[in-house]
């Protein structure tokens, strides 16, 4: 009886219990969050480092919780990824982002791409290609303005299947980016098999470019790799002028990060777009 009591105590430890409670509460509140219009899409500009113009925006989902305020996707994406709600949320983000990008085009603004993150769960949906194709038709966004971001970690789960789906997506005429590049399996020989157009250097390498020679070396190597495979390259998490100048000197084409702008609502993103083209 004593041992049983002890193991029960461990299982119901107050911290674990509190974290579990928080997660369960958030999870129950996530059901219906879309329908209650609590989800919002923010946009973070991608900047051409040579012209300083906005070339694209990345769509990043936000949850406006009725009492907690904005909840970070880092907190709720894992929950909806686990319970499957991500499929509906991801589709809504995609539709919202495509609609927004098309609206900017119709308003006569400079044409930019919109980039949307795909989750592992969405990538496993048998109708993913149909859903993307349907949303492009419905919103009228020309496919060449949509970019989908995928990560090595979920592509590696079933390489043959991933290659097949990526090829089908490419056939729609959209762009594909490998997100968080450098953090996953270092799958250099698979990289040539994945029909992606762009690598996004993970922000952990960008962060300490100026302080850690190893990070700078990794960045140099990724840029060289991208050039030899004729892939476009974006650096994530650019926070300082030093980082921006380093990347530019090394021939990195695009950058994204707080140095240029945080993710912002659509009306603010469009101001940045206009200003960068001095409209
Ligand atoms: P991610 O795709 O790597 O997105 C970039 C994240 O880095 C964003 O965090 C962005 O706000 C942040 N960031 C950008 N520039 C800087 C910088 O200069 N410094 C720092 N410290 N951070 C920067 P966010 O919006 O909190 O999103 C976190 C992650 O949640 C995303 O990482 C992505 O994996 C996921 N996520 C966000 N929106 C979606 C979505 O619609 N669908 C899916 N499947 N995942 C999403
Ligand atoms: Ca991303
Ligand atoms: Ca990323
Ligand atoms: Ca990520």
TrEMBL record:
<feature type="domain" description="EAL">
    <location>
        <begin position="23"/>
        <end position="277"/>
    </location>
</feature>
<protein>
    <recommendedName>
        <fullName>Diguanylate cyclase/phosphodiesterase</fullName>
    </recommendedName>
</protein>
